[in-house]
Amino acid sequence: MYYEILVVTLVVWSYVLTAWCYRTSADPAGSADPAGSADPAGSAGPRPASLRGLIRARGWGLLLIPVALAYAALAQVNGGNHLVILAGIALAGVVMAFFPRLAAKIVPYGLLVLGVYGLVLAKWFHDGDYSQVLYGLALAGAGSWRTHLVLPQAAVFFLAGLWLLLRVQAPGAEQVRALVAKWRHSGRGGIAPGQRWLLLPVVALLMELLGPRDWFGTDWITGAGVVDIDIVVGLAGLVLVFRSRVWAATLAEAGLLVFGVYGLLILELGTVVTGYAYGLAALATTGGHLVISGLQGAVLLTLGLWLVPRVMVEHLAGPVDPELAARAQQLTQRVESLTQTRSDAVDTAVSELRRIERDLHDGAQARLVALGMSLQAAERLFATSPSAALALVTEAKETSSRALADLRGLVRGIYPPVLADRGLADAIRALALDSPLHTVLDIDLPGEPEMPVAAAVYFSVAEALANVSKHASARSVRIQLSYATGMLRAEVTDDGAGGADPARGTGLAGVERRLATFDGILAVSSPPGGPTIVVIEVPCALSSAKTSSC
Amino acid sequence: MRIVIGEDLFLLREGLVRLLTAHGFEIAAAVGSAPELLRALVDERPDVGIVDVRLPPTHTDDGLRAALAARSQVPGLPVLVLSQYVEQLYARELLADQAGGVGYLLKDRVFNDETFTAAIRSVAAGGTVLDPEVVSKLMVRHSRTEPVTRLTPREREVLALMAEGRSNAAIGQRLFITEKAVSKHAAGIFAKLDLTPSEDDNRRVLAVLAYLGS
After folding, report:
1. Which end of chain A is less crowded, N or C, counting CB atoms within 10 A of the terminal residue's CB?
2. Maximum CA pair distance of chain A?
């Protein structure tokens, strides 16, 4: 009784834990990858890099370690041989947690072998050969109903192996997939989904050939045989696989958990109960066979636990394709962020235009009016007072100079001429030259970004530099500009006092908005005592570099 | 004195031609694009080439690049570069060959025809003329650093004017002091900045610029 409670507790516990793990997760990186998590191979696609992602990706494998410890404690209480099992469980856990690709390659074939072995065993049992007496829940013996549990279990193992093989990157898996795809897609030479039941006689015939003799023989006719139930259950399982992968997987997973724990229990009980056999283990009277039972149990339990999160996520995701759901969520977030950045971009553009209009109105335009007035007055005075006229003309000349200076400043604020002439790298060099600080440049740009991106990065760096010379009491500043894997990155590092608050002031906020239009980001790190590092990253493509040769 | 003009805006080109002709310069060629300019500079070998930074065909810094290319073919070919804006970056590139005969001015300096023609003559004579705006940026860069902070305000004024390429006489005229006082200030500056004094105006400018540009 004690062991049954343990089995149920373990199974329920693993279900609850897995469900909790997936339910409570609002991690976008994780939810963007449910397809990967649902993939039993554990090998498709990159795993999330965060710690949380790692735990979610590998937690189920790591779960085996507490299981191993629990088992070790249990075995200790019963005075059993536990070290091999303990090592087996732990090893399986480590392999699955850290080498999911390896596990994915081995597991389907292990299940297939186990299934085929069950078929062979069923045939032996049917023929009265009870040299191997136990296979999972099946116990051989004349007149025992448990003799007939061999075949359904074998079918479950076999189908689970096949099911996995269809989904993992294992040798030969591609061929099996192609074969199944041909079955599943209607068309020339294929079988329509609605006609899958046509496969039943084929499978039944295969079982007749592989299985015990005379299944459709005397037993069937005399009605004495109950072996036929095995066939029905086996076929039902097959249909289940074709109708609902999720429930077939659930069945396989539950079976694996139960048989696995059962195998471990044999190790404990074998010394007191004779007549057991389990998989490859024969009569459970010798220590060697006990160990084999335990190992088999460990393998099956491991497989079961390995399946738990994969099957659970299918249940939790419901009928919705997890890939589509993730995509929908991504798109929703994208639309939200684009709406925000577009509205920011429009606001910024409007206020920029307002500023330019005001600057022109109060600056160059006003000066040109003054210029015209001076010239007008000079014209009037020319005949009567040439010296006064000359003074006015001189004044007009100065006014036009100032108008030009105003316009130069304005143009720099719109699109700096050096940026237009030379591109981003040289514009940053020019910026560094104009800075009163000692600047160290580290520029490595293989090409030139689009003009709007270049301008955004230029003004961001300009703002960062201006902040350094205004606030940081820094002596020197380092500007790094680089490009890697589609990301343009600028870094401004000063040797100042640090402790800068990026929330203070509107300069950096404006820079952030401007960058956001291009999905760019700005990050500031400024611990007290320095250094302050401003990082700007914008995803973009580069065109071929501008050259400064003639 | 023979001059080649490279300026794409018709009004400005004609204005320059008129202004320079009025001051007795001979216009060897007045062209509107960088390739034409390069050809004219190399073929005509003028005493000074007056070049707009921004020229066709790409309307970026084609004029500047043409001037640099001409100077690499004809070392020391005097060029006076004009622009609507000035960049230290371009000044450095022009000064990089240390050959002298370089000017870099804002276009509005043309308004003052006396200093403008003086600049042309200075460049033609192998001198270096930099726009006060470039120099003030250079000075800002060093305003907080030793040993420039040890200079007196007057010495700083003299330093800036030296960097613009002015002779002692011109500096004295500008600051209303005697030429002798200027050379005394200059000696003080050179001592404080630990520069080798030089009587050659052009060498002096280059030394000062090299110091400020570092």
Report:
1. N
2. 141
Which residue of chain B is at minimal alpha-carbon distance from A395?
B111
- Same-domain pairing of B115 and B171: no
Among residues A436, A472, A465, A467, which one has the least CA distance to residue B144?
Answer: A436
- CB–CB contact A433 B92 (8 Å): yes
The bridge status of strand A487-494 relative to strand B128-130 is: unpaired
Q: Which residue of B has its CA nearest to A403?
A: B108
* Min Cα separation A495/chain B (Å): 16
Q: What are the C-alpha distances in Å from B111 to residues A71, A456, B24, B60, B138?
A: 96, 35, 17, 24, 24
Q: Which residues of A95-130 are buried (b: 16+ CB within 10 A; e: fewer)?
A: bbbeebeebbbbbbbbbbebbebbbbbbbbbbeeeb
Q: How far apart are CA B206 and CA B212, in angstroms?
A: 10
CB atoms within 10 A of CB B115: 18
Are residue B39 and residue B117 in the same domain, yes or no?
A: yes
A550·B65 Cβ contact <8 A: yes
Q: Phi and psi of B56, rounded to 5°?
A: -65, 160
Give Cβ neighbours of residue A410 (< 8 Å, ≥ 6 apart): A356, A359, A360, A363, A364
Residue of A nearest to B138 (CA): A434
What percent of chain A shows pLDDT beyond 70? 50
Contact between residue B113 and residue A397 where contact means Cβ atoms under 8 Å apart = no
**Nearest-CA distance A396 → chain B (Å):** 10
All residues of chain A having their beta carbon less than 8 Å from the beta carbon of residue B93 are 548
Question: In Å, how far is B140's CA from the nearest CA of chain A?
Answer: 6
- How many other C-beta atoms lie within 10 A of the C-beta of residue A479? 24
pLDDT tens profile B26-66: 999 999 999 999 999 999 999 999 999 999 888 889 999 99
Could you give the 3-state DSSP secondary structure of residue A310?
A: helix
The residue among B69, B103, B130 that closes a domain is: B130
When pLDDT is cut at 50, 70 and 90, the band that residue A158 belongs to is confident
- B111 to chain A, closest Cα gap in Å: 7
Domain match, B165 and B117 both: no
Is ipTM over 0.90? Answer: no
Q: Which residues of chain A are within 8 Å of residue B53 when distances are taken between CB atoms?
A: 421
- The answer to whether the Cβ–Cβ distance between A436 and B141 falls below 8 Å is yes
A281 versus A444: the higher-pLDDT residue is: A444
Q: Which chain B residue lies closest to A421 (C-alpha atoms)? A: B60
Q: What is the pTM of this model?
A: 0.55
Find the DSSP H helices in B151-213.
153-164, 168-175, 179-192, 201-213
Q: Compute the residue count for chain A.
A: 550
Instruction: Give the C-alpha separation, A474 to A386, whole Å.
Output: 55
A419-543, CATH topology level: Heat Shock Protein 90 (3.30.565)
Nearest CA distance, B95 vs chain A (angstrom): 15
Domain range for residue B169? 134-213
Number of domains in chain B: 2
Query: Cβ of A434 and B84 within 8 Å?
Result: no
Secondary structure (3-state) at A229: helix
- Boundary (domain end) residue, out of B106, B130, B154: B130
CATH of the domain at B175: 1.10.10.10
CB A536 within 8 A of CB A522: yes
Q: Do A408 and B145 touch (CB under 8 A)?
A: no
Residue B65's region, left for phi above 0, alpha for psi from -120 to 50, else beta, is alpha
Are B198 and B104 in the same domain? no
Query: In the numeric block, which tokens belong to residue B114?
Result: 């006396």
Using CB atoms, pick whichever of B54, B66, B140 lies closest to residue A550. B66
Residues A492, A496, A499, A502: is their CA dihedral positive or negative?
A: negative
- Quickly state the pLDDT bin for A132 (edges 50, 70, 90): low
